[in-house]
Specification:
Number of strands: 21
Largest sheet: 7 strands, mixed
Bound molecules: nicotinamide-adenine-dinucleotide, (2E,4E)-2-amino-6-oxohexa-2,4-dienoic acid
Strand order of the largest sheet: 15-16-17-14-13-18-19
Amino acid sequence: MKQYRNYVDGQFVESTRRFDDFNPVDGSVIAQVHEADRATVEQAVAAGRRAVEGAWGKLTVSERGALLNRIADEIDRRFDDFLEAEMGDTGKPVSLASKIDIPRGAANFRIFADMIKTAPLESFRTDLPGGAHAINYTVRKPLGVVGIISPWNLPLLLLTWKVAPALACGNALVCKPSEESPGTATLLAEVMDAVGVPSGVFNLVHGFGPDSAGEFITTSRGIDAITFTGESRTGSAIMRAAAEHVKPISFELGGKNAAIIFADCDLEKTVDGMMRALYLNSGQVCLCSERVFVERPIYDRFMEALAERIRGVRMGWPSDEQTTMGPLISAEHRDKVLSYYALAREEGARIVAGGGVPKFGDERDRGYWVEPTVMTGLPDTARCIKEEIFGPVCHVVPFDTEAEVIRRANDTEYGLAATIWTNNLQRAHRVGEAMKVGISWVNSWFLRDLRTPFGGRGLSGIGREGGMHSLNFYSELTNVCIQIEGEEK
Ligand code: NAD
Ligand code: 6OD
């Protein structure tokens, strides 16, 4: 059986406590994961401290940039290993993992290698009375040892999204991937080892949240900052732990995103785009739309086109190039999603497509599958409209005016992303700006430029990462102020 070990101070270390890693396609056990105890996490934190205060802390920006590029090259070289681990842990189709997850894992290192070399710093000349002045300039320094806690939905993409800028800024890291998806993170530790990242700079600990590696990171005195992607409720628990020692936090949390489809859109392109926004990664992307508003004149046509496209979804084996949708991550998550399908019925929804569990007649019947689902007929106040489900499901309703749809789309405690479909340029700008979210996409969805700010408001998170926003979170800035006399005395 494959073993996923912890990586601490440049060594792969075993643990006597182990847990199973499941393949969601058929529920089989594919690996044993070594769970880190508090002592192992503290060894990782201490190793990180030694690295930051030692040779790693003295590397130049261009030396760090070169190392990041070597990490990206090594991910590319081991592309097939990453692909296999990603598909094994998540069951996502090869068409998705090979186009998004693994290439983005490498791209995250390349972009931050470039950005750290060109990142500007501020300087100001400050005029003083009597002809004197001061020069202020800023220096960028690492925060120290950063704790990184990541989720299972895009495991490599979301871990490297934080690892790359944090390393670019010269920090040491203690990373904990989700217990559901330990595979690609363990390969990333092998990559760090292979390209010569100094011992203690990148540490990986496996485990769960409460009373396990997650909590041991957030409560460790030696962790200088915490960056987290996951559920809003978990963010709240981590915030409480971080409050004790006033640690900086960056949170990318849940979403209950709206899609707004105006009658003047290109319907065919919109349905194509919406199939991605609703069902990519089985709806397990924080940016997926779960609330869809369609302008009344095209509502029926949109629903028919969507139902037709759903009939073409192929739920299959991950390695089959024709597969377009995989299972959910775990039995627990499948049960949660199905409980929302049941709740929707109780709340009065009409199920237009899906709503159940597919039957395959083979080993996949032991996996964690649910059908892509469309529902309608719920009031805006229903729990299914208010709470994040995080599955292949949406609720579609008609609307009549722009003002009405802006109000209804913004009627949520979350605020991550919106997607708007229209050919009216004026309206695209107006509605895009009116959304109370971190990102509004127009005639597109999940189109990423890694230099742009990424994050959410309300229950969707705290802060922004991406480009300079990442570099600023992962650095401590010191302003140096030098007073210069006006005339020689
Ligand atoms: P989760 O919150 O259950 O777990 C995320 C990570 O936190 C895991 O590594 C887990 O072990 C750890 N954890 C859990 N409890 C903890 C605790 N008390 N202390 C420390 N660590 C703890 O989230 P998930 O189910 O893995 O991921 C799905 C969620 O993530 C969804 O809500 C989704 O919207 C959100 N998400 C948000 C973004 C974003 O960018 N905003 C991206 C991806 C996923
Ligand atoms: O593309 C990204 O950088 C990013 N953070 C995506 C998040 C997806 C959420 O599931």
